[in-house]
Amino acid sequence: MLATTNTATTATTTSQRLRSGCASTSTVRGYPLSVPAPRARNAYIDFLRAFSLLVVVAWHWVFTIVIWKDDGPRATSPIGFTTGLWAATWLLQVMPLFFYVGGYSHLVAWEAASAKGERLARFVLRRLRALAVPALILLFIWVTLGVVLGNVFNAKWAGRAVLLVVSPLWFMGVYLMLVALLPVFLWLHRRFDSIVVVWLAGIALAVDIIRFRYDHEWVGMANMIVVWGLCHQLGFFYERLVGATRRSDWTLLWAGLFGLVGLVFSGLYPGSMVGVPGETSNMAPPTLCIVALVVFQAGVVETLRPALERRLERRRWQRVNETINRFSMPLFLFHTTGMALHRAASYALKGNRNEAREPTLWWWLSRPLAVIGPLLFTLPVIYLFGRKWVKPARTSTPEQPTPAPTAPSAV
């Protein structure tokens, strides 16, 4: 009974802290709540970030089919050729989950920064600089290379090849936009709480109606802010979801799943959550399906959390989790560079650039091995150019004592 009371108290006070957007001025065990007590790093959030990153990288390395045309390479995937494979994208399209985790991470990072007296504007600028500088350097190098190849060597394919390599940076662009808008999102969260998520879902629906019903395709670009902003905003409620009942986790999962089924089988939206050539995309720009998808995925990760947290207590899982997160930035930035170098070497050895347009049985059987080549080319690139953005190894010595679990600042 006492454990139940403590859990309820923790969930309630955590919700109150998140609802207000700032801490109370009272104290708990000597910790002033106006300055949130230091919290241990959330291993499960790190795991979700690492999992999302690996899915993105593996998808690009394993499932990218490059088709060469007169003006250069174009990318497609097996989804357009394999019946029913689109259903797998409901779990493998992890961008909504990534933005959801990012929302929580930004909230926690801001709490830590504000506890040290940092102003919000400075915090936002610092985050923007940390994310934008490496992405812009990579973009500049590839654009310069494309210009040289196109003008000096008359390589007509260079423009599309460069576009293919740097295209994953769209994610960084959206992420930077959300960081820049963080003061707005925090104010909305403090002022209106959970109703902000409902408003954003309603706006996303209105945008889709105008886009599809009245054929104003350009309006859909508004959902780049609205839908991804909703995913990010939902992350502010992560601690409340952790404090909710198991039944609430399943409710979230089924609500998102039924929403996806209803939207897709209405015939208004494609089933795939990744772009398929020749079809309307649920991602570029995002549609209401992505709203249902992030609700579904939030339910999935909460349902799996207790079992995975037990796994993450094992030292081997901890080492893998920490290593992937340390190399997350350079791995994301350079994985397509490594893939491009591997393709170039493969084309040179074969003497042609032909690839199977449709996946064959041998193509499917070879997918587990398809990671090896791009990985071998990516690791040297990270070593030569990406070491600056590798996070330092964590130390096991705690910096400050952690308050009792019943304190409002506990996760």
Widest sheet, order of strands: 1-2
- Multimerization state: single chain
Mean pLDDT: 87
Structural class: mainly alpha
Q: What series of H and E elements makes up the topology?
A: HEEHEEHHHHHHHHHHHHHHH
Query: How many structural domains are formed by the residues?
Result: 1
Low-confidence stretches: 1-35, 396-411
Radius of gyration, whole Å: 23 Å
β-sheet strand percentage: under 5%
What separation lies between the terminal Cα atoms? Answer: 21 Å
Helix content: 55-70%
Helix count? 17
DSSP E strands, number? 4
Shape: globular
Instruction: Specify the biggest β-sheet.
Output: 2 strands, antiparallel
Features:
411 residues, mainly alpha, two-stranded antiparallel sheet, 3% strand, disordered C terminus
Could you walk me through the main structural features you see in this protein, from its secondary elements to its overall organization?
The structure is a single chain. With 411 residues, this protein is mainly alpha-helical. The protein has one domain (42-389). Helices cover 64% and strands 3% of the residues. The strands form two sheets. The chain has a two-stranded antiparallel sheet with strand order 1-2. A hairpin with a 2-residue loop joins β1 (27-28) and β2. α2 (43-63) crosses α14 (315-326), α2 (43-63) packs parallel to α15 (328-350) and α9 packs antiparallel against α10 (223-234). The protein starts with a helix and ends in a 25-residue tail after the last helix. Mean pLDDT is 87; it is low at 1-35 and 396-411.
